[in-house]
Amino acid sequence: QVQLQESGPGLVKPSQTLSLTCTVSGGSIITNFYYWSWLRQRPGKGLEWMGAIHYSGDTYYSPSLKSRTYISRDTSKNQFTLQLSSVTPEDTAVYYCARDRARTTTTPVDRGQGTQVTVSS
To answer: Are 29 and 72 spatial neighbours (Cβ–Cβ below 8 Å)?
Structure first.
């Protein structure tokens, strides 16, 4: 069974870039037909789909975050990463990485435990 684990700093200063890595075990990120996604849940709000990288390497982003979001992967390490630039306190959230055959789902079949990121000076 595939397992996903998020890692990265828990505290980021405003205007900086938030960088998170998802390490995948039990399955390859180049497995046919899967999307590898990043989601977040801000305080008091539901899960928000941020973007995804397809097994083919194609990337897709939420229109509301597209200008600040970049997703990449390292197939040799079986990892994919999220970079969110110009962060503000509004980006404080629990961030999740996930896998699903659907691109923009907020109920993925596989999801990491999540990592808290706080944006504060």
So the answer is: no
The C-alpha atoms of residue 87 and residue 68 are separated, in whole angstroms, by 9
Residues in the chain predicted with pLDDT less than 70, given as ranges, are none
Using alpha carbons, list the distances in angstroms from residue 35 to 10, 31, 68, 92.
25, 9, 20, 24
Residue 80, number of CB atoms within 10 A of its CB: 25
What's the token pair of residue 26? Answer: 């039990």
Determine the Cα angle at 62 with ends 19 and 70, to 5°: 30
pLDDT at 31: 80
Task: Find all residues with CB under 8 Å of 96, minimum gap 6, and list them.
Answer: 6, 38, 39, 40, 41, 47, 111, 112, 113, 114, 115
Q: What is the pLDDT of residues 69-88, one digit of tens each?
A: 999 999 999 999 999 999 99
Cα distance between residue 36 and residue 81, in whole Å: 10
- Beta strand pairing status for 110-111 and 79-84? unpaired
